[in-house]
């Protein structure tokens, strides 16, 4: 017997809020991408917990797809950041020029 | 409180504390190291929830590949820290407050569901059963994800390629 499913969802919600905080407040493009990674991680925790709660394997399947999509997103995102750095010389999203 | 519950709370504390430290650091390398600890905790949580294959994949892909990719980019680009490392409060607090309100409302809605209050039973999804299930019912999604990864590979190559024509025109 592990904990109730609501505790898993509370953990996932706290982690998601941390990801949102990281993505919207930090003034650095890499930190924004890391915030998105934290949010995806929180979602996959919720999915795996739901898979255990409902005794269905679909949640684990979705967590696997989340990992694959996160890998694809990070590779394209970091290549975009290299492009942005070549063009503007900085990784500051608040640059106004 | 059983042993599994104690393990869950310890892992939850590890994940939340290491993520909380990570998102407030200013040195990017420290951020990545603390996030690796957070992903290790998540992987052990997956093992506790009976998904050993996902636990291994979490370590290999998230904590291994993705974080090392971030480290490469951090080492490659010279990141100067601006005078203010955060946006002004008025710009991001509304968005974060809206998201927090949504999360709190969702958790309050879940409280009214009596089914969710009972403790989870331990179970283990055998990796071979998981693989059979995946390729029996979700083979189409597997194909789509493989195409997505191929597109991401080609896109990253195209974006990261140095502009050769402009360099040859300059001299």
Query: Which structural class matches the secondary elements of chain A?
Result: mainly alpha
Question: What is the radius of gyration of chain B?
Answer: 22 Å
Oligomer: heterodimer
The number of distinct β-strands of chain B equals 0
Shape of chain A: elongated
Order of helices and strands of chain A: HHH
Poorly predicted runs of 5 or more residues of chain B: none
Largest sheet of chain B: none
Distance between the termini of chain B: 74 Å
What does this structure look like?
Chain A has three helices and no strands. Chain A is 80% helix and 0% strand. In chain A, helix 2 runs antiparallel to helix 3. The termini of chain A are far apart. With 171 residues, chain B is mostly helical. Chain B contains seven helices and no strands. Chain B has helices at 3-22, 28-48, 52-76, 89-111, 127-137, 139-160, 164-169. The longest helix of chain B has 25 residues, at 52-76.
SSE layout:
The complex is a heterodimer of chains A (97) and B (171).
Chain A lengths: L4 H21 L3 H26 L3 H31 L9
Chain B lengths: L2 H20 L5 H21 L3 H25 L12 H23 L15 H11 L1 H22 L3 H6 L2
Features:
heterodimer; A: 97 residues; mainly alpha; 3 helices; 80% helix; elongated; B: 171 residues; 75% helix; globular
Summarize the structure.
The complex is a heterodimer of chains A (97) and B (171). With 97 residues, chain A is mainly alpha-helical.
């Amino acid at each position: 017997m592990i904990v109730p499913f609501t505790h898993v969802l509370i953990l996932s919600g706290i982690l998601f809020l941390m990801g949102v905080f990281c993505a919207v407040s930090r003034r650095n493009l890499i930190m924004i991408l890391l915030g998105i990674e934290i949010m995806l991680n929180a979602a996959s925790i919720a999915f795996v917990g739901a898979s255990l709660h409902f005794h269905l394997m679909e949640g684990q399947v979705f967590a696997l797809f989340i990992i694959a999509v996160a890998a694809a997103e990070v590779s394209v995102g970091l290549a975009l950041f290299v492009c942005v750095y070549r063009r503007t010389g900085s990784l500051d999203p608040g640059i106004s020029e | 409180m059983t042993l599994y519950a104690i393990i869950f709370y310890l892992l939850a504390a590890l994940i939340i504390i290491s993520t909380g430290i990570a998102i407030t650091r200013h040195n990017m390398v420290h951020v990545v190291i603390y996030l690796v600890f957070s992903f290790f905790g998540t992987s052990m949580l997956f093992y506790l929830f009976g998904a050993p294959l996902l636990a291994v994949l979490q370590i290999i892909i998230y904590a291994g590949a993705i974080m090392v990719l971030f480290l490469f980019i951090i080492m490659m680009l010279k990141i100067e820290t601006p005078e203010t490392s955060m946006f002004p409060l008025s710009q991001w607090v509304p968005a974060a407050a809206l998201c927090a309100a949504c999360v709190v409302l969702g958790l309050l809605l879940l409280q009214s569901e009596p089914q969710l209050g009972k403790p989870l039973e331990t179970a283990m999804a055998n990796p071979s059963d998981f693989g059979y299930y995946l390729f029996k019912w979700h083979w189409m999604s597997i194909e789509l994800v493989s195409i997505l990864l191929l597109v991401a590979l080609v896109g990253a190559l195209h974006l990261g390629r140095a502009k050769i024509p402009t360099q040859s025109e300059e001299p």
